[in-house]
Each structure stands twice: as structure tokens, then as C-alpha cells.
Write a structure and sequence with these properties.
binds 3-methyl-2-ureido-butyric acid; alpha/beta; about 325 residues; 6-stranded mixed sheet; Nitrilase/N-carbamoyl-D-aminoacid amidohydrolase; about 25% strand
Length: about 325
């Protein structure tokens, strides 16, 4: 008798975090991550997605001129003394994870480069993938009159790893980070490599500090809209984890969720604190989308897409 195909169902948890105070230590943050992982595992999860910059408060809201202070928000190795217990717990439980953190790289000459980074870790505690955020929002200089600052362009370099995918957890896994989720280019780069699950974290203020006239309810709509479209148009699961709630005076949205390749939200966090939501994800579910309506090989017309990679800004025919 032919053997039955191995299961392609991966039980996944999205682990949302409430605020992390400026005074909170790495050890305290890691304790929270471990308890979210244990809760996820208790609900059957074999893979947990944690937020962007999950080890510290969202420090790019402040001007930090002191280099030593700035460097204190970054990890120079992974795992390290503070995060090792999370990797060990993952191995003990047989539960992989996705983690966002600030990464400081030193080259041989001692030159420092700073990235907003995420890693994939498998169920043995081994790092199987790394991504460095490409679409950095906000500004490099402070903006007068803004309710708060968003200085990612000041502190991070544009990621230098492209949009890779990884064979991990029995599927093709991709990653992106926060603002990346709003860009269709992100999703198509991952979709073209056959992504079956995209893990991402976000820190999204309720009020966009540079578009304060926008009604607040649109924030959550655009959050989910971008990811639901990315899921459907590429036939992939999306697991998206927020850092939510009022962190150091800035209100961040929650809405952490798991989205099926159909574009439907199948699990959703309801609070703005530490919370887990779980779904059974059949990693083959997107195959029919990839083979039909979004069969790239059959239907894409790259001869007409040149502007996407040859031009950055919009150019109207009237020159305005
Ligand atoms: N951390 C982020 O990338 N946040 C942006 C905000 C600033 C718009 C986001 O796209 O959610």
C-alpha cells in the first residue's frame, strides 16, 4: 500500500505583546516571551510568531544621541545570554518561533551597522532564517509638531538580505517586518519563491504621527487590508503579531491575526496585551490559488511591469 502523504498541517500561534516599558530588562521581556510560548504550546502550537522589536520598548520614538545608550537597545549576537532561555525552551517544547529584534553588526574594522531584524528558529532551537527590514518608515530627523516621532530612518540601515524564503517547519517560510506589509512588492517577492507562510511583527501607532487627519478606525482597516490582500494574491498564510497598547505614552494598535491563503482572518487577538491566538494551518491550502487565479507562470506579464523596478517615485504625464 502507498504510504499516506505526511501531514502539511502546522498548528501556529500568533503571540501578541502588550507594551514593553523603557525600564523593562531583556530578561523580563524574555520571560514574557517564554510564557507566551508555553501558552501557545499548551494550545497545540508548534510555531509561534512574536512581534517586531520584541525584546525592548519601541525606542525609535526618541532622539537618542548617546551611542552607548542607543547600542543598549541592540543585540550583537543571537542567541545571547539573555535570549538563550527562549531558545532552550523552544527546543524542550519542540516549538519553533519567529522573533523581531534590533541587530548591531560589527565588521572586521569595527564599523557598526544597525538593522531592524527578524529570525526564524526551528523546533530544535536552531536559527533557520534571517530577514532585515527593507521598507523603513518615518524620518531621520525629528518632525516639528508631530504628536510623537518615528525615527527608524535615523537608526536603521535598509536591510541587505533581500526577501528570502526558507525551508523550515515543513513548509516554505517567508518574513517581512511591519511597514513591509503595506507594500505589494514585498508579498510578490515572497510569492514568487513559493511562500506558504509569511511571519511578521509590527509596532503600529493608532495615530499616524504624520497623517493625523486620518480617522483612527482606518488604521486597523489598512493593517488587515494590506495583509489579507498579500495572503490572497500570493496564496500564502500570514501570521502577524503586534506590540500593542499604550507604550511610553504612545498607543499602538493590536489586531494580531492569522490569515488564510483565501485572505480570510481565521484567528484574531481581541486585547491590547499579551495574548495568544491559534490556528491549524494547512500549508498546502494556497496551492489551488497558486495553480489557478494567481498562476504566475501562466498569467504574469513581466514585459509590462518594467516601471516597478526602474522607477521609485510617481511621475504624472502632466509633470505635476
Ligand atoms: N514599525 C512600523 O513600521 N510602523 C509603521 C508606521 C509608522 C506607519 C507601519 O507601517 O505600521
Amino acid at each position: 500500500m502507498p504510504s499516506a502523504p505526511s501531514s502539511r498541517v502546522l498548528t501556529v500561534a500568533v503571540a501578541q505583546m502588550g507594551p514593553i516599558a523603557r525600564s523593562e530588562t531583556r530578561t523580563q521581556a524574555v520571560e514574557r516571551l517564554i510564557s507566551l510560548m508555553e501558552e501557545s504550546h499548551g494550545l497545540g502550537a508548534k510555531f509561534v510568531v512574536f512581534p517586531e522589536l520584541a525584546l525592548t520598548t519601541f525606542f525609535p520614538r526618541w532622539v537618542i544621541d548617546d551611542e552607548e545608550e542607543l547600542d543598549s537597545y541592540f543585540e550583537t549576537s543571537m542567541p545571547n545570554n539573555e535570549t538563550q532561555p527562549l531558545f532552550e525552551r523552544a527546543r524542550e517544547l519542540g516549538c519553533g518561533f519567529h522573533l523581531g529584534y534590533a541587530e548591531l553588526v560589527r565588521d572586521d574594522a569595527g564599523k557598526k551597522t544597525y538593522f531592524n531584524t527578524a529570525i526564524l528558529v526551528d523546533d530544535t532551537g536552531a536559527i533557520t532564517g534571517k530577514y532585515r527590514k527593507i521598507h523603513l518608515p518615518g524620518t531621520a530627523k525629528t518632525v516639528a509638531g508631530a504628536p510623537h516621532q518615528h525615527l527608524e530612518k535615523r537608526y536603521f540601515e535598509v536591510g541587505d538580505l533581500g526577501f528570502p524564503v526558507f525551508q523550515s517547519q515543513g513548509g516554505v517560510m517567508g518574513m517581512c517586518i511591519c511597514n513591509d506589509r503595506r507594500w505589494p512588492e514585498t508579498w510578490r517577492m515572497l510569492g514568487l519563491q513559493g511562500a506558504e507562510l509569511v511571519a511578521l511583527g509590527y509596532n503600529t501607532p493608532h495615530v499616524n504621527p504624520f497623517a493625523t487627519a486620518e480617522p483612527v478606525f482606518l488604521g486597523m482597516f489598512h493593517n488587515h487590508l494590506s495583509m489579507q490582500a498579500g495572503a490572497y494574491q500570493n496564496g500564502t498564510w500570514v501570521v502577524a503579531s503586534a506590540k500593542a497598547g499604550v507604550e511610553e505614552g504612545v498607543h499602538h494598535m493590536g489586531g494580531s491575526c492569522i490569515i488564510a491563503p483565501t485572505g480570510e482572518i481565521v484567528a484574531l487577538c481581541h486585547t491590547e496585551g499579551d495574548e495568544v491566538a491559534v490556528a491549524q494551518c494547512d500549508l498546502s491550502m494556497g496551492d489551488y490559488i497558486k495553480q489557478n487565479i494567481f498562476n504566475f507562470e501562466a498569467h504574469r506579464r513581466i514585459e509590462h511591469y518594467g516601471l516597478i523596478t526602474s522607477q521609485t517615485g510617481m511621475k504624472r504625464p502632466d509633470g505635476v
